[in-house]
Amino acid sequence: MNDTTAAPAGLRLTHLDEAGHARMVDVTAKQPSVREAVATGEVRCSRTVMTALREGTVPKGDVLAVARIAGIAAAKKTPDLLPLAHVIGVHGASVDLELAEDRVLITATVRTADRTGVEMEALTAVSVAALAVVDMVKGVDRSAEITAVKVVAKSGGRSGDWHRPVG
């Protein structure tokens, strides 16, 4: 959508004003509430990389530990990366990584007690954790691929709870 295009009837994009210009949503009047978001993603890796991850022989070190810390740090930096994201208190953040057959599965859970949700923070955590995995294994194999980054659940706030349908 550009500045001269109106949103379809019934669709209101909250980050656009009536003229179609970008704006930060004003959440001043909203009451803080407990909110949580869970996002997932994957890094597809070669058999060589997966073996090195399982054996702990990646030359750059502990890939999963670095990715976990990178993801948590990224959740707290989301407003620095996304210009319309609110500065909120990230009161809890966890990033879990699991080795599957041909990929690293990443799950980030972010919590706050604030005026707006933490979906962007959870997505940022997963994305940066995935980038850290790629950075750590690229010397072994440059074919690592980030895929399937998405929000799978959120709770709290005016819109309540939501879970991505399976399948």
Number of helices: 4
Sheet having the most strands: 5 strands, antiparallel
Overall strand count: 5
Question: Could you give the distance between the termini?
Answer: 30 Å
CATH homologous superfamily name? Molybdopterin cofactor biosynthesis C (MoaC) domain
Decide which structural class fits the backbone: alpha+beta
CATH architecture call:
2-Layer Sandwich
Biggest sheet, spatial arrangement of strands = 2-3-1-4-5
CATH topology: Alpha-Beta Plaits
Succession of helices and strands: EHHHEEHEE
Mean pLDDT: 91
Overview of the structural elements:
The protein has 167 residues and is an alpha+beta fold. The protein has one domain (33-159): 2-Layer Sandwich (Alpha-Beta Plaits), CATH 3.30.70.640. The protein has helices at 47-55, 63-76, 78-81, 119-137, and strands at residues 33-44, 92-99, 103-114, 145-155, 162-163. Strand 2 (92-99) and strand 3 form a beta hairpin. The longest helix is centred in the last third of the chain and has 19 residues, at 119-137. It starts with 32 loop residues before the first strand and ends with a strand.
